[in-house]
């Protein structure tokens, strides 16, 4: 818990009993938060008659005062205002105490005001009777213990009274370190003290009578622990690694070493001085670096010429650094640490090809890496001063070559990215330049060794024939006669110096519609071309052909043929749906909307013409009305009995010549009750059958 410092404005030592609070005004520093059950301060109330029936009331309900006078928070509280007021009442007296809460930045400025108010509290003061001067004790004292370290004096004598000591180190942890002689006020220490553990103790001493009643005090007794040089300097922030660029000027700061000493920083016990004990390696100079004895800064002391990474035995130096307290005197304690200094590379060496000319051989038509170009560079391989960047500066007009750096070996990988043609050029000469990722330092330049020539020989191979054009495209009408010529393909052999012959064959013909003359490449039909076939996509049929030369072994080339098929009116329209249902007592006699579709393309499709086949009998039962180009509606002219009826309907497309299709629409007349439709065929009356019987009867009568 955080206990705010209490600034006492009125002291009640040596006063006659005055009923009420012994101190009426308090100033406390506001903590970040008053936590639950936290002791804020102790209030002393005395009605001089035993405090019978004493109770307290606090202005803020989040706080309470117990019978022992302890003001505590009942829960975690962050905002309490500027003041708290505590009212106390007993059988014989009542009083009010004020607790003012200061912001942290108000504390210093408020002290003067507090001191001004101290004399105006209305509480008479008397001279203190206890004199407790601070006691100084060296740490690390040796036995025997207890050891007398100081004395508390009472001006009015010690007869009939005794001294009482309390606080951290007496009756609070760590307990039992200090004690006081009750009779004469002698203060003793009982064990060795460690200033680095606890540097000072704030105790309270009071004088009580033989019954334990306080007569004087309490007053503060400060015990200060005197530091001894018992802690060695320590380097806590390792590992210590510094970097310096090669060729740096003399006096360049590399890094700073900082040690810690737990002793009193205001004494020589923690006054440190630094020194280099050892340097490894010792070349090119045993004194490459210097350390500022007071600051711990490590700087270079050799000339820039000696700070050359490429001529050093190692680019890494290790320095053993000593820190000594007591200002570096011989009696001081020491601590050591190792500082690692890395000499960083700068780009002071250009890359150089290991040869002036490289040779490569590649077969025509092949891509990939054909040769690795090697270079040397004396700079640090882990840096951009070593990593190579290659470029082709001459001999690559068609951009057939590319060069990239192998990140592991730093070699230049020269590749063919566009197939070479032996018949066009059997030899190529490239001029290659190499540079570093990082720029060279100003006084270094790339020389002739940073360029090289690559001689490339192209080997002839038997290349496959090439179709012209590829792909090939032609437009034909579907349903052309079998044996019709589609086109004649043309393929040539790139190997013009070999004078080879070419033969043709079908490679892929998904529908089996085509053939090709193996000698002259004429493509003809072996079946009817059907635009509506599933092998036709977006009116285009695709087939592949091979051209094979007479080489050994023979080489082949593939050609693609796209045939765009024009539509003819070769598909009758279809009607949908072919089944409809209606209630025998329906009020709406619009039975069904029919639609028509056609696999052909416009203008061989809609507008469609819808017609009913001729109805016989004394009266017509239905009619058909055209709704738009693709739909018509069947309407009953009267309610019909429950039965199944077949209605023949013809639909005609707009092709030239037009095509007609007749489809029977099955109409079910059902019984409908309570939103349920019963279409069971109890009266299987078929109009189409009735019409047939009437027709037969008519023919029979005519024969007589």
TrEMBL record:
Concerning InterPro entries, the annotation shows: Cadherin, Cadherin-like_dom, Cadherin-like_sf, Cadherin_CS, Cadherin_pro_dom
Q: Which PROSITE patterns match?
A: CADHERIN_1, CADHERIN_2
A GO molecular function annotation here is: calcium ion binding
One GO BP annotation here?
A: cell morphogenesis
Name any GO cellular component annotation.
Answer: catenin complex
Give the gene that encodes this protein: Cdh13
| Its job | Cadherins are calcium-dependent cell adhesion proteins. They preferentially interact with themselves in a homophilic manner in connecting cells; cadherins may thus contribute to the sorting of heterogeneous cell types. May act as a negative regulator of neural cell growth.
UniProt KW Disulfide bond keyword? no
Q: Which domain of life is it from?
A: Eukaryota
The entry's protein name is: Cadherin-13
């Amino acid at each position: 818990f955080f206990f705010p410092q209490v600034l006492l404005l009125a002291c009640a030592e040596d006063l006659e009993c005055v009923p009420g609070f012994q101190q009426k005004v308090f100033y406390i520093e506001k903590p970040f938060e008053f936590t639950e059950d936290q002791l804020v301060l102790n209030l002393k109330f005395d009605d001089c008659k035993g405090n019978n029936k004493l109770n307290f009331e606090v202005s803020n309900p989040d706080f309470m005062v117990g019978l022992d006078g302890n003001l505590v928070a009942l829960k975690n509280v962050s905002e309490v205002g500027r003041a708290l007021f505590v009212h106390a009442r007993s059988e014989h007296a009542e009083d009010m105490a004020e607790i003012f809460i200061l912001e942290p930045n108000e504390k210093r400025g408020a002290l003067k005001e507090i001191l001004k108010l101290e004399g105006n509290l209305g509480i008479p003061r008397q001279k203190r009777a206890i004199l407790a001067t601070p006691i100084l004790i060296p740490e690390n004292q040796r036995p025997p213990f207890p050891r007398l370290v100081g004395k508390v004096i009472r001006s009015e004598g010690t007869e009939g009274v005794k001294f009482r000591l309390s606080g951290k180190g007496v009756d609070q942890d760590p307990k039992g370190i200090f004690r006081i002689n009750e009779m004469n006020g002698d203060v003793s220490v009982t064990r060795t003290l460690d200033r680095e553990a606890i540097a000072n103790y704030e105790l309270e001493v009071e004088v009580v009578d033989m019954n334990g009643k306080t007569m004087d005090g309490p007053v503060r007794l400060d015990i200060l622990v005197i530091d001894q040089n018992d802690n060695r300097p320590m380097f806590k922030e390792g590992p210590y690694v510094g970097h310096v660029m090669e060729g740096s000027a003399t006096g360049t700061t590399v890094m700073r070493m900082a040690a810690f000493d737990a002793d009193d920083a205001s004494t020589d016990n923690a006054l440190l001085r630094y020194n280099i004990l050892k340097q490894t390696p010792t070349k090119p100079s045993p004194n490459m670096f210097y350390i500022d004895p007071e600051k711990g800064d490590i700087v270079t002391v050799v000339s820039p010429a000696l700070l050359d990474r490429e001529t050093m035995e190692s680019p890494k130096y290790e320095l053993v650094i000593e820190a000594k307290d007591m200002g570096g005197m011989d009696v001081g304690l020491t601590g050591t640490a190792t500082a690692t200094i890395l000499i960083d590379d700068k780009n002071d060496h250009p890359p150089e090809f290991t040869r002036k000319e490289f040779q490569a051989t590649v077969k025509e038509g092949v891509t990939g890496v054909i040769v690795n170009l090697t270079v040397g560079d004396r700079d640090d391989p882990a840096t951009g001063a070593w990593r190579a960047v290659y470029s082709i500066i001459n001999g690559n007009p068609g951009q057939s070559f590319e060069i990239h750096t192998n990140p592991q070996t730093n070699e230049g990988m020269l590749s063919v990215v566009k197939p070479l043609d032996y018949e066009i050029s059997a030899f190529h000469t490239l001029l290659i330049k190499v540079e570093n990722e990082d720029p060279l330092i100003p006084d270094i330049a790339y020389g002739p060794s940073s360029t090289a020539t690559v001689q490339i020989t192209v080997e002839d191979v038997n290349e496959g024939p090439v179709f012209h054009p590829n792909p090939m495209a032609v437009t034909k009408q579907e349903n052309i006669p079998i044996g019709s010529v589609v086109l004649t393909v043309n393929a040539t052999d790139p190997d013009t110096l070999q004078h080879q012959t070419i033969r043709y064959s079908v490679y892929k013909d998904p529908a089996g519609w085509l053939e090709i003359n193996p000698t002259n490449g004429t493509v003809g039909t072996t079946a009817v071309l059907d635009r509506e076939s599933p092998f036709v996509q977006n009116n285009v049929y695709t087939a592949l052909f091979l051209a094979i030369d007479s080489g050994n072994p023979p080489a082949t080339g593939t050609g693609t043929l796209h045939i765009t098929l024009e539509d003819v009116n070769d598909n009758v329209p279809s009607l949908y749906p072919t089944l409809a249902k209606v209630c025998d007592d329906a009020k709406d006699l619009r039975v069904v909307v029919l639609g028509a579709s056609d696999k052909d393309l416009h203008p061989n499709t809609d507008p469609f013409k819808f017609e009913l086949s001729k109805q016989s009998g004394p009266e017509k039962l239905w009619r058909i009305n055209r709704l738009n180009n693709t739909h018509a509606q069947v309407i009953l002219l009267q309610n019909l009995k429950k039965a199944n009826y077949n209605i023949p309907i013809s639909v005609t497309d707009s092709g030239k010549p037009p095509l007609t299709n007749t489809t029977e629409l099955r109409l079910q007349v059902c019984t409908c009750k309570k939103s349920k439709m019963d279409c069971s065929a109890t009266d299987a009356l078929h109009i189409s059958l009735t019409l047939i019987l009437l027709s037969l009867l008519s023919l029979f009568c005519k024969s007589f």
